Amino acid sequence: MLRPTLFWVACLLLVHSAYSSYEHLSHLKAVGRPEGALPLDIAAEALLAMVLGIVGACLKAPQSKDITWAGEMKTRSIDDADSRLTFANYTTRGRVLTQKS
């Protein structure tokens, strides 16, 4: 229950920090000073949203699968491995056997 909640809280914080930065820049334009640093609380909120989003996404991710050859051979027998497709061999000994001497 914590995993999706953490992720959605991070999304809401990120949207709120984006809206707050938009409002701050609109206020600066209205005052006549379009240049200005972003307030520290908005930057901190965006960083907190990023950290919470990363943690929530990592907790929400499924368990990693074993992709090594040894892990694959745990699920198969040697008969499965030997019965796989291989390269086609079209060279036969038929010409040598049917040659007239």
What's the count of strands? Answer: 0
Instruction: Provide mean pLDDT, rounded.
Output: 84
Largest sheet, strands/sense/barrel: none
**Cα-to-Cα separation, first versus last residue:** 83 Å
- Overall, the morphology is elongated
Strand content: under 5%
SSE pattern: HHHHH
Q: How much helix is in the residues?
A: 55-70%
Number of helices: 5
Radius of gyration: 32 Å
Which consecutive residue ranges, at least 5 long each, have pLDDT under 50?
none
Structural class: mainly alpha
Q: What does this entry look like structurally?
A:
The protein has five helices and no strands. It is mainly α and 101 residues long. The chain has a domain at 2-64. It is elongated, with a radius of gyration of 32 Å. The protein starts with a helix and ends with a helix. The model has no long low-confidence stretch (mean pLDDT 84).
What's this entry about, in short?
With 101 residues, this protein is mostly helical.
Attribute tags:
single chain, 101 residues
Can you lay out the helices and strands and say which pair or pack?
Layout: H1 2-31, H2 40-60, H3 69-75, H4 78-82, H5 94-97
Helix pairs in contact: 1-2
